[in-house]
Design brief:
Structural class: mainly alpha
Order of helices and strands: HHHH
Low-confidence stretches: none
Distance between the termini: 26 Å
Number of helices: 4
Number of strands: 0
Radius of gyration: 14 Å
Length: 105
């Protein structure tokens, strides 16, 4: 009997990676640990983006993921850390959904 495996959408993995990476870095006070979580989630999301949308989608969304991480820092100076993290995570999730929604259908 074949075992069914549940897939977590790349949209959720990417948004969770940004939020979780920040949370881990903040609460453990170990930025490299948060960076490792961010990178691991990014790698999983990139794999799924490639699987569902192809190379161009994976490359573009991976670039957006990295840009969101980088963009959260200056945004945090204006709106605060958590609002910035949630804003960029939402942006990456929206971009991921928009790019891959037809491929997954």
């Amino acid at each position: 009997m074949a075992e069914a495996t549940a897939r977590i959408p790349a949209t959720a993995v990417a948004a969770g990676g940004i939020v979780g990476g920040y949370a881990i870095a903040r609460w453990t006070k170990k930025r490299p640990l948060g960076g490792a979580a961010l990178a691991a989630a990014g790698a999983v999301a990139a794999y799924e983006w490639h699987r569902t949308g192809g190379t161009k989608a994976a490359a573009g969304l991976s670039a957006a993921y990295l840009a969101a991480f980088a963009g959260a820092h200056p945004l945090a100076r204006k709106v605060g850390a958590w609002p910035a993290v949630f804003t960029v995570a939402g942006g990456v999730a929206a971009a991921s959904w928009a790019v891959t929604r037809r491929a997954g259908a």
